[in-house]
Amino acid sequence: MSRRIDIELTSVLPDGGFTWRAAGAKAPKGTIAAGVVPTSHRVGEVLKVEAEFDLDGITVLGLVQSRDKKQKSNTLEMLPSSSRFEPVTQRLAKKSENRRTTRKPSGPKKPRFTAPPELPKRPTPKRLRPGRQHRSAILETLPAEQRPVAEKALSGGIKAVRDAVKAQNDQLKKEGKPEVPADGLISMAQDLLPKLRVADWLDRAEAAREVLDQLDLRDLRSVVVASEDPMVVRDESTRELATTLKTALKKRQDEEQTLWLQDIEANLGVGRSVRALKLSSEPPKAGQPFPAELGTKLLQAARESLTSENSSERWIAVLEAAAFSPIRSQVTVQSIPAAQGEQLLATVKRLAPVLPQVAAAFGITVEPGASAPRPLRPQRQPRKTRKPGKPEGTRVQSEVAPT
Questions:
Q1: In whole angstroms, what separates CA 248 from the centre of its chain?
Q2: Partner of 312 for a Cys bridge, out of 182, 200, 341, 343, CB 3.0 to 4.6 A?
Q3: What is the DSSP string of 24-90?
Q4: What sign for the dihedral angle of Cα 226, 230, 232, 236?
Q5: Contact (CB, 8 A) for 326 and 295
């Protein structure tokens, strides 16, 4: 979740970034990646920035553009007084000898986690946005009565056509009208489907070729997998482009694998163990063994975080990340927190099928046949409710013509 804060620039980094601290205080503090704040700013300036807060620290997203406001004068005018000046005297009462001051006993200090320094983030890959050039060309060659069948086959295959015909016939039967011939429509869809599949793949493949170096690896992999469709393979127009995309996928996977390992190493180097554990569970190339030396470093970082000196919140973050990493079967606990809390125990119980050795340290037994958990999805922020008395915006509703 992001919010606005005031920061003071404290020094300039060699790469053009800055170090900062909260305005008027020693903490929190951190670094700003190069390019986020213009180099025209100088050390000692106080800026208002947009920052994102998470368990690994504070990430400065950018400057907040503020409007110029008129400066109000805070000067008070001193007017002379006509009355005679009389000095004020003060006499302090002596403290009683029997009076004693007592201090309340201070409770145990809550474990605190110091956020590690920031690391520059890699550019976000582009998602695939295919056009409709080839699909539209096929649909334009068809008679008007065949286009709805073709669009339904393109969106969901023969099953979608069969379901649509059945639903239409059920409605016609209720209205006492003659039913449409299902066999003829399904046969028509089967004849059109090969050309439609090829056109759909060409639209996706050509869009992928345009942004091949920046395309999200998942989208590129899906296009390459779709090229193995028998309907696509049999068409000569797809073979050269499919070969190009397969070669590019292999190259991109090797590059992403190298960058992936470098990112894990870099996050471990600055103490971002949670981020390193999460990255390790998202390999760009499936089936590749995880390096043993890097796995040892990752395991050591996880064990150092799972001690009684760390808070329950820190434990939960580390366990959620370690449960899906390649070193999860080796994660052990050195010492559990004295104050565990219901949320931590619930997390250990949920992750027990994949972290049985951690569950055993808390006295939790894994139930036979328990299914493995899935990673938690980020929670969406609740939508802001409309203030009373504020009119709602006009919504444009699209009408769908009846079929």
A1: 26
A2: 341
A3: TSS-SEEEE-BTTB-TTS-TT-EEEEEEEEETTEEEEEEEPP----PPPP-PPPPPP--SPP-----
A4: positive
A5: yes
**Burial bucket for residue 238 (CB in 10 Å: 0-12, 13-18, 19+):** buried
Cα–Cα distance measured from residue 185 to residue 154, given in angstroms and rounded to the nearest whole number:
14
* Order of strands across the sheet that contains 29-32: 29-32, 18-22, 2-12, 46-54, 57-63
The reply to whether 241 and 275 lie within a common domain is: no
Determine the structural domain holding residue 29 and report its residue range.
Answer: 2-63
For 47-72, how does the pLDDT look when each residue is reduced to its tens digit (9 = 90+)? Answer: 888 887 776 678 887 887 765 444 45
Rounded-to-integer distance, Cα 255 and Cα 284, Å: 9
Q: Which two tokens stand for residue 127?
A: 């998602």
The answer to whether position 280 is within a domain reads: yes
Average pLDDT, the chain: 82
pLDDT in tens, 212-263: 999 999 999 999 999 999 989 988 889 999 999 999 999 999 999 999 999 9
**Look-up: residue for tokens 């016939």?**
169
Six token digits for residue 107: 């409770």
227 in any annotated domain:
yes
> CB 69: neighbour CB atoms within 10 A?
6
CA separation for the pair 215, 371 (Å, rounded): 34
164 and 221 housed in the same domain:
yes
Rounded Cα distance, 284 and 262, in Å: 13
Structure-token match 């939960």, residue found: 316
φ, ψ of residue 308 in degrees (nearest 5): -70, -15
Strands 57-63 and 46-54, sheet pairing = antiparallel
Q: Which helix (H) or strand (E) holds 269?
A: helix 239-269
